Fold this protein.
Amino acid sequence: MIDFERLYIKWSQLKPINFIVLTTLLMFVFTMPLSFVLNTIGVKEKEIGSIDYNQYGLIETILLTAALAPLIETFLGQGLPIYLTQKFIKMRTNQVAVFISSIVFSLSHLGYSIWYFILIVPTGILLAMTYIVFQARKESSFWMTFSVHSLRNLIAISPFLLDR
């Protein structure tokens, strides 16, 4: 049987660069089953939606997806909801904070589609967990979360970047 608590402890103690890389990879791994289910039930990629990168140049796309979006979303999707949850909720604070943060983060992507909202939930959970882990480590939870998010977005847009 898998000892999730032990895996969590090992994950939460990784050096920052290893943490960033592994967590980014986990985002894609945890999204794959959801992608498979959506594909199986006939949801087309066009129905899922995303940013239309063709309307932006290469530099604009990189700045938007790897800098601006992660910066704003880390503040609004992790920093603010987690701070408010920790301030006002006293029972199971971090679990509630992860739940609220991941819902807020996913809701911010609902404009693409309900399917995109569903697909982004694992990413929201891992970003919230990243924020809380580095908060507990008394390291920069904001910038670590931003870094994970930024790398995830860069990998996600790499086919577009290579296609240009």
